[in-house]
Amino acid sequence: MRPYLPVRFAVAPMIDWTDRHCRYLHRQLAPRALLYTEMVVADAILHGDRDRLLGFDAAEHPLALQIGGSDPAKLAEAARIGEAFGYDEINLNVGCPSDRVQSGAFGACLMRDPDLVGRCLAAMREAVAIPVTVKCRIGVDEQDPEPALDVLADRAVEAGVSAIWVHARKAWLQGLSPKENREIPPLDYERVYRLKQRLPEMFVGLNGGLATTEAAASHLNRVDGVMMGRGAYQTPSELARVGELCHGEPPVPVDYPALIDAMAAYAERHMAAGGRLSNVTRHMIGLFTGLPGARRWRQILSERAVRPGATPELLRDAFAEVQLDPANAAAA
């Protein structure tokens, strides 16, 4: 098995959000971040349109494929397919609490069956040469997070995983929506710290409630890696600080004109292949949050990118409305 990537910072897998267009944007801002796909169900990989589900741009590396499922044989075959597509890591979802995963008895439901998780991970591990990892919660429903997380982590270690990523909240499978499950159960970072102390040789990463890169980086003295979700998506400019805060690199202002040019060129390629401009621009809405002109930027992209005949030049038109802060004035 290949050694695990030297991960310090990752962007979390988020259904309907972290598609290939989103990831291309994030890669422009954070060259060293580990990016994750949306969760893709194993059955979809086995029977669906694989190019649509799994295709990505080479610029997205390092890139992990997150798979959902609970059948070891199917997960193993899906992992093999993902490896053949060129992914750098295969991750098993043991944390999503949506109705979709509950009806299929996978995602966060698997926290109740750590032995099955172990069998799934072992089958995936035996099927591929790239790292296999798991992303879980600290527990579900009435579980005590102390034994629940330890038992699941032990099964993962026994299966030969390269990393355990932990969303530091419980999931409540009944009574809370997926959105509420991201906000209402209290965060327990200390529980993840204790897991790392207990498993000093295992990569343990922390996820949950990390709204800024600075907040994420503050945990790196207690765990091996940190993972941002909605904070990275809603305010993509936060990703520009990953090199400085997570890797100790000198701060580098974002060259926003170059970024807009890169995204316009990417959108042009996407549209030439039959896609729509809005597939790309919808992920860029929050790019200039907090700057003068950001509202106009959002308005132009939201209203005009969906119109027939919209072209990538719209990005430059919208960017002309933005007033960069002094740190980026030179780049403009």
TrEMBL record:
E.C. code: 1.3.1.91
Keyword Repeat in record: no
Segments forming domain DUS-like FMN-binding: 11-313
Catalytic function, reaction form: 5,6-dihydrouridine(20a) in tRNA + NAD(+) = uridine(20a) in tRNA + NADH + H(+); 5,6-dihydrouridine(20) in tRNA + NAD(+) = uridine(20) in tRNA + NADH + H(+); 5,6-dihydrouridine(20a) in tRNA + NADP(+) = uridine(20a) in tRNA + NADPH + H(+); 5,6-dihydrouridine(20) in tRNA + NADP(+) = uridine(20) in tRNA + NADPH + H(+)
UniProt cofactor(s): FMN
UniProt binding sites for FMN: 66, 135, 167, 207-209, 229-230
Pfam family, one: Dus
An MF annotation (GO) of this entry: FMN binding
Family: Belongs to the Dus family. DusA subfamily. Belongs to the dus family.
Protein name: tRNA-dihydrouridine(20/20a) synthase
Organism: Aureimonas phyllosphaerae
Gene for this chain: dusA
